[in-house]
Design goal:
This protein has 536 residues and is α/β, with parallel strands linked by helices. The protein folds into three domains: 9-228, Rossmann fold, CATH 3.40.50.300; 236-297, no CATH class; 394-536, no CATH class. The chain has helices spanning 9-18, 28-40, 55-66, 87-90, 111-129, 141-152, 174-188, 236-249, 257-264, 278-287, 301-307, 311-321, 344-353, 369-381, 387-404, 407-418, 430-440, 485-494, and strands spanning 44-48, 95-100, 156-161, 194-201, 218-220, 267-268, 274-275, 327-328, 358-360, 363-365, 448-456, 459-467, 474-481, 515-523, 528-535. The strands form four sheets. It has a five-stranded parallel beta sheet, covered by helices on one side. A five-stranded mixed beta sheet has the order 11-12-13-14-15, with helices on both faces. A three-stranded antiparallel beta sheet has the order 8-10-9. A hairpin with a 6-residue loop joins β12 (459-467) and β13 (474-481). α5 runs parallel beside α6 (141-152), α14 packs across α15 and α15 (387-404) packs antiparallel against α16.
Length: 536
């Protein structure tokens, strides 16, 4: 066993995962891949997903399944793939070449050092695995692999993780990128020694290669390809199973099933399947705490990186998206690696690829609270966003005024919002008014779980602010265009919206403190805002 050929690392890595408390069996992917190879002759697969979406776990699984091992009790015996007719024929029956392209040699500062580690390492492993073939280490790695194939009829399974990692290294030039693609082409394309080539990355191949260097790969991304979509990320049913395990094995379990959905659900695949962020689910259940796990690996600046070239056109959309609205776009996959992201379609397409937004039915939106918190942070921290930032900064004052019943200050802040030149403040419908209200209450999200159009009492309320801290007033907020705040509060009472805090029959009340009804109206003729608060 060597560093690349028949490395024990994939098997040991997957074995550790498979024995963990919150393991999800996705081994049916292997059965589907083998079926595709056998029926369609397709041998080259590239799976692209945002970071932390299980790509490396799946790569380890594939390498562990096909690679040779000596374990008496095999980790796949009790998994779904064991039910496949293909299992016995393919299990541990191949020499696997496993390459993690994110790994660098020590003190690496050149493409030559990077690629030589891989090329020389594979050749050294070949010499160790096939000592009787007198392989020539002076020849290319693909020539030596072809020699093994010609003399032994050995076909290899290639498992390549994070194939695009090298493109993000500071020492890589444009010429180096071309050399890298040429290396992959020579290593993989049209080679008789390839049994299967399984590759993962964040960005699809076509984004880097405009030619035909490695066009033999069939690419599967989350937004446009339905096939294999259920294997990356966690399904609703899988999170249900993990939550049962969590409840059974965690002392003083603090997380609810609703928490997991609110914080980590919301991604959409091309097949219409909703997906949870797997890293965040596992971390939260392991730690017994809801937190920002996936986004903690990157600051809000990561979001700003994508929008920085078109802030004026993007910021109105940001105001709408942080209020829960969707923005229509034409998805442009090739925009993801552009050095200059300028149009909205390019920017949002790149953000979908990186998992900062999700895409469904021609629209993008913020998928969950974990991401929403990062967008909130962006709005509150970046003054280049202009009026959106300024109004977000006013949101602390707006919340204080609301809790104190200071309707004059509330109306003053809403007038400030309306006096900007943004088209969303035309208030053509209550959607725009809702977006503005959401923006001027942005700081409330530190103390409240804010829900829009929540089913409450006998109807749907515009906003409910559920306190997340003790001794904090609950808020029910109703909006009226060309109405009065008194009308809004009357609707809150008539529809019994306050019942939402009592929970379901037999459940402990969600909140037993003071509930404040808030009515906000806008008169399109006089261009005035009116506010009223009342304790229920």
């Amino acid at each position: 066993m060597g560093l690349f050929i028949n490395s024990i690392a994939p098997y040991e890595g997957y074995k550790e995962i498979s024995r963990s408390r919150f393991f999800v069996d996705k081994s049916s992917l292997i059965d589907e891949i083998i079926s595709t190879v056998r029926m369609d002759g397709q041998r080259y697969f590239c799976f692209t997903r945002p970071r932390r979406f299980g790509k490396s776990v799946m790569a380890n699984m594939v390498g562990a399944f096909f690679g040779r091992t000596t374990d008496e009790k095999d980790i796949f015996d009790d998994l779904e793939i064991a039910k496949s007719d293909y299992c016995r024929k393919y299990l541990h029956n191949y020499d696997v070449i496993y390459i993690d392209f994110s790994r660098l040699p020590e003190n690496c500062n050149s493409f030559g050092a990077y690629i030589n580690r891989i090329s020389d390492g594979i050749k050294e492993d070949l010499a160790g695995e096939y000592p009787g073939l007198n392989l020539n280490m002076g020849r290319s790695v693909w020539d030596n692999l072809q020699t093994v194939f010609e003399q032994n009829r050995t076909r290899f399974v290639f498992v390549m993780d994070e194939w695009d990692a090298i493109f993000h290294k500071s020492f890589i030039s444009e010429a180096d990128k071309k050399r890298y693609l040429d290396f992959l082409r020579d290593l993989l394309k049209g080679q008789g020694y390839i049994e299967l080539a399984y590759m993962t990355g964040v960005l699809p191949i076509a984004k880097y290669s405009s030619g035909s260097e490695i066009n033999m790969f069939k690419e599967y991304d989350m937004s446009t390809k339905e096939k294999f979509s259920e294997y990356f990320g966690f399904l609703d049913s899988e999170v249900d199973q993990l939550f049962v395990v969590y409840q059974q094995t965690t002392a003083n379990a603090k997380i609810t099933r609703e928490d997991l959905a609110e914080w980590y659900d919301g991604y959409h695949t091309a097949a219409g399947v909703r997906m949870y962020n797997p890293r965040s689910i596992i971390c939260s259940l392991t730690d017994n705490q809801i937190s920002n796990y996936w986004t903690s690996s990157g600051p809000y600046d990561e979001i700003f990186y994508y929008i920085r070239n078109n802030i004026e056109e993007i910021r109105d959309d940001l105001a709408m998206m942080v209020s829960g609205e969707r923005i229509e776009i034409k998805l442009q996959g090739y925009a993801a690696t552009s050095t200059e992201l300028n149009t909205k379609n390019q920017i949002y397409s790149a953000m979908v690829v990186y998992g900062l937004l999700t895409y469904e039915d021609g629209e993008v939106f913020i998928p969950n609270r974990e991401l929403m918190d990062k967008f909130d942070e962006l709005l509150l921290s970046n003054d280049s966003l202009g009026y959106v930032h300024n109004l977000a900064k006013e949101s602390e004052r707006m919340l204080k005024a609301t809790l104190a019943g200071d309707t004059a200050v509330m109306a003053e802040i809403l007038k400030l919002a309306h006096d900007t030149e943004s088209p969303i403040f035309s208030y053509n419908s209550e959607i725009e008014l809702s977006a503005v209200v959401n923006l001027v209450y942005l700081a409330a999200r530190d103390k409240y779980r804010v829900e829009r159009e929540d089913k409450a009492g006998e109807g749907y309320v515009d906003f409910i602010f559920y306190p997340e801290r003790k001794r904090t007033d609950a808020l029910i907020l109703e909006l009226k265009v060309d109405g009065t705040p008194e009308d809004a509060i009357a609707q809150i009472k008539k529809k019994n919206y306050a019942l939402r805090f009592q929970g379901k029959i037999g459940e402990k009340p969600k909140y037993t403190g003071r509930i404040l009804a808030v009515g906000i109206s806008y008169d399109r003729k006089t261009k005035e805002h009116f506010c009223k608060t009342e304790v229920l």
